[in-house]
Amino acid sequence: RAVDDSRSQMSPRMKPWIAAIHAYVPGKSRADDGRELLKLSANENPLGTSPLALAARAAAKAPSLYPDPDSAELRAAIGRVHGIDPARVVCGTGSDELLNLAAQAFAGPGDEVLFPRYSFAVYDIAARRCGAQPVEARDADYGADVDALLACVNERTRVVFIANPNNPTGSFLPAAELARLHAGLPGDVLLVIDQAYAEYVDPADDDGGLALAAAHENVLVTRTFSKIYGLAGERIGWGTGTPHLVDALNRIRGPFNVTATGQSTAAAALEDQAFVTASREHNREVRARFVAALEALGNHGLRPLPSQANFVLVLFEGALSAETALRGLAERGFAVRHLPGQGLPQGLRITIGTAEHMDVIADSLARMAEGSA
Ligand code: PMP
C-alpha cells in the first residue's frame, strides 16, 4: 500500500535520452511582433508546385478511405523516373521519417551515430531518440570532411548520416569523396546519404549516391518531395537501398504513412520533369546573382558559402552581425534562418526565392553593412 500511495503522486518519467533532446526548431514565417513575413527560412520552392501535381491533388480520392499502405503507384513512378526496382523503394512521411527509422532500425543504446558538424538537426534527434550517442565529426571550412568522419568510426559506430548537398551549409561532396567515405566504412555500418537537395545539383555533378545504394548492402539514399517538387505540405519522402534495408524500414514505418492525396500528387509531380528542370535553372541563376552581390560586400565581412542547394549560408564576420541582419531583414518583410542552436550564431541561411526578392535582400544587406561600417 505504502508503495502504491507514493507512486500515485508520481508522474511518468521521460527516458533520459529523450529528456536530452532539443526539439527541432522550424523556420519561421512571422516576425516577433506577429507580422506575416515572406518565408525564405525553410528551403521551399519559390515557383510553387507543378500544375500537373496540383491537378492530381484536386482530383484526390475520398478522405474516408485509408491510403494504399504500400504507396505502390508512387513507388512504381519513382522506379520509372530513377531506374530503380520499386521493390527497393520505401516511402515515408517526409524523408524525416525515413531518417528516424534508419537510426531506429540500426542503432540503439550503447551505439554511436556519426555525422558532420553543421549538418541537418534531425540527425542528432534521430540518434538520441533511439538511445544512441550522437557523434559530430570536425568540418572542413563548413563542409563535410571525409577524413575527420572516418577518424571517428569505431566499433560502436552503427550509422553515418551525410546530407549531400548539406543543410545548412550548402556544401557538396563530389562522387569521388562520397565513394571514399563509403569505402572507408566497415560493411556493418549503415551510410545514409540524405539527398533532400539532390535535384538542385547540376546533373553533371551527380554524387553517385544512387549507384552506391544500388550496389552495396550498407547504403541508404533518401530523397524528398518537399524541396524541388514543391510538396512540403504533403509530407512525402522516399528511400532506396537493398531489400534488407527496405525490409527493415518497412517493419517499423507507420502502416499508412503517406496520405492518399500525397501519393497521387507526388506521382503526378514526378511526371513533370520540365518543372523540375525549370526550378533547378531558376535556382542556379538567381543563386549565382545573389552570391555575386554578397561577394561584393566581402570588405564588410559578409561571406556567402559556396552552395549546390536552394539556399545560401551567409557568414557575418565584420561589424554587421547575423543577429542584426536577421532583425533588419524581418523589418523589411523577410524571414530567413538563424541557427545559433546549431553552432552558427554568425550565419544566416537564406532560401533562394524569386529574383526580385533576392535583389531586395542583397540590397538591404548592402545598406545594413555599409551603415554599420
Ligand atoms: N534532409 C535535409 C538535409 C533537409 O534539409 C530536410 C528538410 N529541412 C529534410 C531532410 C527533411 O525533409 P522532409 O521531411 O520534408 O522530406
UniProtKB/TrEMBL annotation:
Keywords from the named record: Amino-acid biosynthesis, Aminotransferase, Histidine biosynthesis, Pyridoxal phosphate, Transferase
Keyword set includes Transferase: yes
EC code: 2.6.1.9
UniProt source species: Croceibacterium soli
Pfam families per the UniProt record, alphabetical: Aminotran_1_2 (PF00155)
Annotated PANTHER family: HISTIDINOL-PHOSPHATE AMINOTRANSFERASE, HISTIDINOL-PHOSPHATE AMINOTRANSFERASE 2
Protein name: Histidinol-phosphate aminotransferase
Catalytic activity: L-histidinol phosphate + 2-oxoglutarate = 3-(imidazol-4-yl)-2-oxopropyl phosphate + L-glutamate
Pathway linked to the protein: Amino-acid biosynthesis; L-histidine biosynthesis; L-histidine from 5-phospho-alpha-D-ribose 1-diphosphate: step 7/9
Location of the Aminotransferase class I/classII large domain: 36-365
